[in-house]
Write a structure and sequence with these properties.
Largest interface: A-B, 56 and 55 residues
Helix content of chain A: under 10%
Structural class of chain B: mainly beta
Number of helices of chain A: 2
Radius of gyration of chain B: 17 Å
Strand order of the largest sheet of chain A: 3-34-35-36-37
CATH superfamily of chain A: Quinoprotein alcohol dehydrogenase-like superfamily
Structural class of chain A: mainly beta
CATH architecture of one domain in chain B: Sandwich
Radius of gyration of chain A: 22 Å
Pfam families (chain B): MSMEG_3727_PQQ-assoc
Strand content of chain B: 35-45%
Strand content of chain A: 35-45%
Oligomer: heterodimer
Family (chain A): Belongs to the bacterial PQQ dehydrogenase family.
Protein name (chain B): Multicopper oxidase
Largest sheet of chain B: 4 strands, mixed
Organism (chain B): Pseudonocardia hydrocarbonoxydans
Helix content of chain B: under 10%
Strand order of the largest sheet of chain B: 1-4-10-9
InterPro entries (chain B): Cupredoxin, PQQ_MSMEG_3727
CATH class of one domain in chain B: Mainly Beta
Distance between the termini of chain B: 24 Å
Chain lengths: ~550, ~150
């Protein structure tokens, strides 16, 4: 036999592609610039667009009168090669960031791209290798990146946080933030505040102990960690069994990006369900700080106040979704939160005082919350092996996907899911990395619907609703053009009149929406970008569409140039 | 069922699942031998995988690394057909083309612990059996562990 042919050395896949390899350097994005993000609507500088989580764009080129002419400007296909974790549950959930014509967006399976926001050209690509066997409750997903200090920050499925050079995509630092053997992962979009990167944990369905971390943006060194389940003796520990191990696996993960008030220097972090999700018998007490909004001092990580939306949760009612900050006409600093439990809360964001609570869904059977905030559970899995049906189901009246607030109309637009579920308590032992639910759960395959609800947060009045055959499982966004954009599970991207709810335009994207659209402009042309791709925890929020087409394409729309 | 762990290789052979075009069309994934990477003093790991003639599999089929880090892999194609390998790697997967009777290398970086798969992404090599596993053992660094007492594992 002759000598082997020399095959050389393996090369990066990108080398065999048209990927340019670099993005133009942009102006530095720092804390002050993100604080003032509303003053540069051509960019979408941070996860929610602004720290307050309003998801509002003051761009007004696209209006009620011309939105019918909206058309795709370009499409980016994420694609995949080889085997990947959660091979059947990947979903394009991100919220694209745009800085001076460069879009930074993450996708499933550790992928991150810089794209030309005007043309869709792929400028650079990074892929963090994700183990096939990480514990993922809710699919192979990532909700986005943070951009600043010349870097792009991304959390990974195997619980790392990486900082990439914003112009090349090359790794600057990489820190192991969590323990994959303990069922931890990271799916959240990081938040850049001051010189820190804020990243919360995922892993609530595996009995991890939820936490929020702040890392040095330059080095990756951890500045502080705030556990959301107290140890014995710490404030809140009285809400857990004295002599038990429950707190060690208590949940309260922080898998959605917090909002932030720069004047108060408080992060508003929503926390996840207690573990086990449905078996409260092993964790008597209110189980702080699960299912809460926790106001965290950004400088120290200390908890300033909290408000628990569902004490002693037995329905998987995470409260991780956003806490939208807005001010009342009298100047009172408020926050709004549409919880999984079907109730809409308005709190004073300086101290957590309840201002108003009211239901925002049609069907609530799990319990009742009085106008004063008194919680009365009614229907819950209690007896071993006995099925119990309740509304809303474990994905909630609204899941993590985000509502938006339009300061012109004064309305908050809530994507609503009307889906129930049946849980049957089945107690099990805790073992690291194994799902720790304490029940068998089947979400309803019929009798579901959804709507966008336009609510006045100052009165609780629903001004209009746009009803849909299927629940709303994607974030919406509202603009100064008087519009609300909303993706549907069946692939339509629709534009609604922000004042009336009338549908003015729609485009079929070919796969369902489970992401957060963003709005920006380049060279005076307004765009709206929306990642699509039906996936994630479908069996939780809409199993009636488990058979729908998957996908992972990013659509960008604009008005015709001529 | 009378299967035991000890006789799995014999059972796979008897059932015609460990080769090409026997009971199945291709080779069932996850079969094949287990190998271990060697570690240099600097922590870099080395290993060799090869494609035997007409087997359409990587040998060893499962490569175990003691920890995450840098792996210098030698890939040998002893087959009389052309294949390739697309390998996981932090930053960007790597690809190497392996014509008949070829030998090459790949330097890759992976986090541990966890399991990664790689394959020959030409035709349906991956489905026929040319899908290998890289398994990384160990624990995450102490600073990344949760502040709680040791917990039971399966």
């Amino acid at each position: 036999m002759t000598d082997y042919v020399d095959a050389g050395a393996a090369v990066p896949m990108t080398q065999l592609s048209a990927v340019k390899g670099s993005a133009p350097a942009t102006g530095n994005v720092d804390y002050e610039r993100i604080r003032a993000a509303a003053t540069e609507p051509q960019n979408w500088l941070t996860y929610y667009g602004t720290y307050d989580g309003q998801r509002y764009s003051s761009l007004d080129q696209i209006t009620k009168d011309n939105v019918h002419r909206l058309t795709p400007a370009w499409v980016f296909q994420a694609g995949a090669t080889g085997m990947q974790s959660g091979a059947s549950t990947y979903s394009f959930e991100a919220s694209p960031i745009v800085v001076e014509g460069v879009m930074y967006v993450s996708g499933p399976d550790g992928k991150c791209w810089a794209l030309d926001a005007k043309t869709g050209e792929e400028l650079w690509r990074y892929k963090h290798a994700s183990p096939y066997d990480v514990s993922l409750c809710c699919g192979n997903v990532n909700r986005g990146v943070a951009v600043g200090h010349g870097k792009v920050y991304m959390a990974t499925l195997n619980a790392h946080v990486v900082a990439l050079d914003a112009t090349t995509g090359q790794k600057v630092w990489d820190i192991t933030a969590g323990d994959v053997r303990a069922g931890e992962s990271r799916t959240v979009a990081p938040l850049l505040v001051k010189d820190m990167v804020i990243v919360g944990s995922s892993g609530g369905e595996f009995g991890s102990r939820g936490c929020l971390d702040a890392f040095d943006a330059e080095t990756g060194e951890r500045r502080w960690r705030r556990y959301m389940v107290p140890k014995p003796g710490e404030p809140g520990s009285e809400t857990w069994p004295d002599d038990g191990e429950a707190w060690q696996r208590g949940g309260a993960n922080c898998w959605v990006t917090p909002t932030y008030d720069p004047e108060l220097e408080l992060l508003y972090q929503g926390t996840g369900n207690p573990a086990p999700d449905f078996d409260g018998g092993v964790r008597p007490g209110d189980n702080l700080f699960t299912d809460s909004v926790v106001a965290v001092d950004v400088n120290t990580g200390e908890i300033r106040w909290h408000y628990q939306f569902t004490p002693h949760d037995l329905w998987d009612y995470d409260s991780t979704m956003e806490n939208l900050l807005f001010d009342a006409p009298d100047g009172r600093k408020l926050m709004a939160h549409a919880d999984k439990n079907g109730y809409f809360f308005v709190l004073d964001r300086t101290n957590g005082e309840l201002v108003r609570v009211f239901p925002f869904v049609d069907r609530i059977t799990w319990g009742e919350i009085s106008p004063e905030g008194k919680v009365t559970p009614k229907v819950y899995p209690d007896e071993e092996g006995v099925p119990v049906h309740f509304w809303p189901g474990p994905a909630g009246g609204k899941e993590w996907t985000h509502m938006s607030y339009n300061p012109t109309t004064g309305l908050i637009y809530i994507p609503v899911q009307e889906v129930g579920a049946t849980a049957t308590r089945r107690r099990r032992e805790f073992k690291e990395s194994i799902p720790y639910w304490g029940a068998g759960v089947a979400v309803d395959l019929e009798d579901f619907y959804g709507f966008v609800s336009a609510v006045d947060p100052l009165t609780g009045e629903e001004k209009w609703r746009w009803r849909n055959e299927y629940p709303m499982c994607a974030s919406n966004i509202t603009t100064a053009g008087g519009l609300v954009f909303q993706g549907t599970p069946t692939g339509q991207f629709v534009a609604l009149d922000a004042a009336t709810g009338e549908k003015l335009w729609e485009f079929q994207c070919g796969s369902g929406h489970h992401s957060s659209p963003t709005v920006y402009s380049v060279d005076g042309r307004q765009y709206i970008a929306v990642p699509t791709g039906w996936g994630g925890w479908i069996e939780g929020f809409l199993p009636g569409l488990l058979g729908a087409a998957a996908g992972d394409a990013l659509f960008v729309f604009a008005l015709p140039q001529d | 069922m009378t299967t035991t762990a000890d006789d799995r290789s014999a059972q796979l052979a008897e059932a015609g699942l460990d080769g090409q075009n026997k009971t199945a069309l291709g080779r069932v994934l996850g079969t094949g031998s287990i190998g271990y990477a060697e570690e240099r003093p600097d922590g870099t790991m080395t290993a060799t995988v090869r494609i035997p003639e007409d087997e359409l599999c990587w040998e060893p089929g499962t490569l175990i690394l003691p920890h995450g880090g840098d792996l210098e892999l030698t890939l040998i194609n002893d087959d009389k057909n052309t294949h390739c390998a697309v390998l996981p790697n932090n930053g960007d997967p790597k690809i190497i083309w392996l014509v008949n009777h070829a030998k090459g290398t790949a330097s890759i970086n992976l986090d541990g612990p966890g399991t990664y798969y790689y394959g020959s992404t030409t035709g349906n090599d991956e489905g026929r059996g040319l899908t290998g596993a890289i398994v990384i053992g160990g624990e995450v660094p102490d600073h990344a562990k949760l502040d709680r007492p040791p917990q039971p594992r399966p």
